[in-house]
Amino acid sequence: MTRPVDAECVDCKTHRENLGKPYPKYPRPAPHAGPRCKSHDTQKKRNAKSGAHERRVQRVYGLKPGQYGDIYIRQGGKCAICQWSKGLSKNLSVDHDHKTGETRGLLCGPCNKFLGWVRDDPEAGRRIFEYLKNPPAKQLGITAIHQDNRREDQ
């Protein structure tokens, strides 16, 4: 059954009835399938998605309600490694030690994959640090520049 294009959103209708007076932007049309206007439908989906994520981290990682948010706040609302990603469009991943299963923190997808590639090895982290600090080409005195970084005036 299709709804009429000018159907009233159930949330808008409830809001208008609770006010007890006409409200300028209500009733809103609900042109898509379902009983809600676009703004209420979007909010309902956002709430459902948030709840599903919370339930999943509780089930999979053993976190208690609200602990994901506590870790997120403790990290300043950013990936613990790159400090760039904030998890706004996609939630940060729960990072855990693969040997013990212990939760460590929240990481963006690339940082989480990177840790998987180095097999959670702290020595690999030290080697990466030393490599970036003093790379072999620099030790040999090689100063070749990648084409994307070359200036035309050089």
Descriptive terms for the model:
2 strands, 44% helix, two-stranded antiparallel sheet, disordered N terminus, His-Me finger endonuclease fold, 2 domains, 154 residues, mainly alpha
Largest sheet: 2 strands, antiparallel
The number of distinct structural domains comes to: 2
For the CA atoms, what is the radius of gyration? Answer: 25 Å
CATH top level label of the largest domain:
Alpha Beta
Please give the order of strands in the largest beta sheet. 1-2
Estimate the mean pLDDT confidence: 82
**Helix and strand element order:** HHHEEHHH
CATH architecture of the largest domain: 3-Layer(aba) Sandwich
Which percent range fits the helix content?
40-55%
Q: State the fourth-level CATH superfamily of the largest domain.
A: His-Me finger endonucleases
Write the layout of secondary structure elements.
Elements: H1 10-19, H2 38-61, H3 67-74, E1 93-96, E2 103-107, H4 109-117, H5 122-133, H6 136-139
Briefly summarize what is shown.
The protein has helices at 10-19, 38-61, 67-74, 109-117, 122-133, 136-139, and strands at 93-96, 103-107. With 154 residues, the chain is mainly alpha-helical.
Task: Write a structural description.
By secondary structure, this protein is mainly α. It has two domains: 1-61, no CATH class; 64-142, His-Me finger endonuclease fold. Helices cover 44% and strands 6% of the residues. The protein has six helices and two strands, in the order αααββααα. The protein has helices at residues 10-19, 38-61, 67-74, 109-117, 122-133, 136-139, and strands at residues 93-96, 103-107. Strands 1-2 form a two-stranded antiparallel sheet. A hairpin with a 6-residue loop joins strand 1 and strand 2 (103-107). The protein is flat and about 75 Å long. Residues 1-5 have low confidence and may be disordered.
